[in-house]
Amino acid sequence: MCIFHYERKKRKMFRSTIKSNLIAVFSAIILIPFLALSVYLITQESQKINSRTFAALNQNCVSVADAVQREIDQMNMVSTDIAYSYLIKDSYSQYLANQEDHTLTKSLYDLLATTIGPNRPVDQVNIFTTVDTLIASGLYSNIYNRPVQVMAWYEEAKALNGNEIVWYTEYDALLARYTTDPYGKLFFSLAREYYDRSNNVQGFIEVKNSLRKVLSQAIDYQSVYGEQLIVLSRDMDVILPLEAEPVQPLATAVSKLTKPNEFVPITNDDQQGYAAFTELKSGLRIVIYIDQNALFMPVNSYIRSVALLTLASLALAIILAYLAANTITVPIQQIYGQMQKTNLSGYMPRTRLKTRTIELNELYDSFIEMQHELVDSLNKQLLLKNQEMQSKMLALQSQMNPHFLFNSLQTIQSMADGNMNEEIVIMCQSMSNILRYISSDSDTTVPLSDEIHYTSDFLKCMAIRYSNDLHYTFDFPDDMKPLLVPKLSIQPLVENAIRYCTTILPPYHIHVFGTLINGIYTISVTDNGPGFKAEAIELIMSKIREIDETGLLPSLEIKGMGLLNIYLRYKILYGDDVIFQINNNEGGGARITIGGRFHE
Q1: pTM reported for the whole predicted model
Q2: Whether pLDDT at 589 is above 80
Q3: Which of 14, 105, 3 is nearest to 332 (CA)?
Q4: What's the angle, vertex CA 309, arms to CA 306 and CA 315, rounded to 5?
Q5: Which residues contact 469 (CB under 8 A, 6 or more apart)?
Q6: For a disulfide at 526, which of 188, 401, 478, 591, Cβ 3.0-4.6 Å?
Q7: pLDDT grade, residue 459 (50/70/90)?
Q8: Cis peptide before 507 (omega within 30 of 0)
């Protein structure tokens, strides 16, 4: 009834407080106009931000296109210088007339190298002759047998009657030898027909430059808004980036655009975005694509800024409400703080409230009075629980006594059948000590030293029974001797070990030892018997889990005594701190370990 009364008062007090009402009013006054202004600014600024972003990206696209066009113009300048140089025309005509004269060949190489110049604005110059040879000058210089008809650009260059054509020739094995840069292994060609002084066709001029030079600004382009730069050939094949497959669907969509320098929405692999392009005279397209999410990133950043301002305004409203309501709510908070610190280990002291309000003082006095009543009630419950646990321990211990006597009488009977009279006398004396220990008092726990003496007397009897085929040892540190353990808890483990150990041929070895580490103690009993079967271990552990889940004790009968009995006695004593392990030794035999937290 007291707990219900406390919960009812608590719900009533915090259902609608003065502070919460003030916070709501101040927040509304500050936030409503601010939010209205924010919505207006977001709507207007979003359009401006997108327009500025498109303008900046379009300018970047044009800048890259201009840089590429300058490189192509440089290639065209070198090609034109060769095409209109009378010195090269005359030297070339002399070479064609006498191709075996190495002096003429060297003179032609020198003229081509001079035209290219020391700054090497182009990588390679090739002249395809009318006699199906190729005169090469640049990164490599030589004469090769190669007809011009095999070149991909031949038909279109021939149709242009001396005007240039730009062609993406991709990989060139001869030029690729001079660099490890992947962009330096791919090339553009600028080709045109070559005429002599009489305007007769004498072959074709091809000027080559790598992607690294022609698309230098496109390759080094740094994304500002998350945009992507793409270069397409005149046939709308992807030149840049080199990994063309991921952007091929985008290239296909962009190839259908007709208006340059204007962003239009396109769909790329189910993603919405915007793209614009700039087309060069050579047919190359410089494309900039930006994903819709990246485009709206500046807008989102602006919205986040507005949201932060909104949160700051809300914080200001809360501070103002807090300052305004403090005079009333401080006493209530004081009472609430006392409630949070409530514990039932003892009576809470009364403290002076910072208010003279009669109702609040009465409320606080009622709370203190209720806490005192709860402490009294809890103490009564703990006393009853302690008495219940004591009764369970005594019941389990009483279960052990007839079980031990039953087994001992069976042993004496077996000795009498073997006419072991002297041993019977010794065993009866040991039995007298054992029975005296069992019936000495009703304590549920005893010092470990007493339990060791009792177990030792039992093992003396067993050693006589098995004609000294049974060997046993004890190993306990001195600081463990005072600890309290459940009475008659070690001897049943030893008896269990002897029962299974004697199923094999002697000798039989029983080792009882203990450890004490960081306040946690363990007692282990090991033997050299056949050990536990996996099924037996699983059966015992499943019953232990069932006991932990249900909290039910077994019926008090002799057959109920055993490992579960020992576990329950330790469980009652130590609760969740109990230690109970069953396993087999690596060298053979079984081991049972029990324990818990050290009790002086």
Answers
A1: 0.48
A2: yes
A3: 14
A4: 145
A5: 506, 507, 508
A6: 591
A7: confident
A8: yes
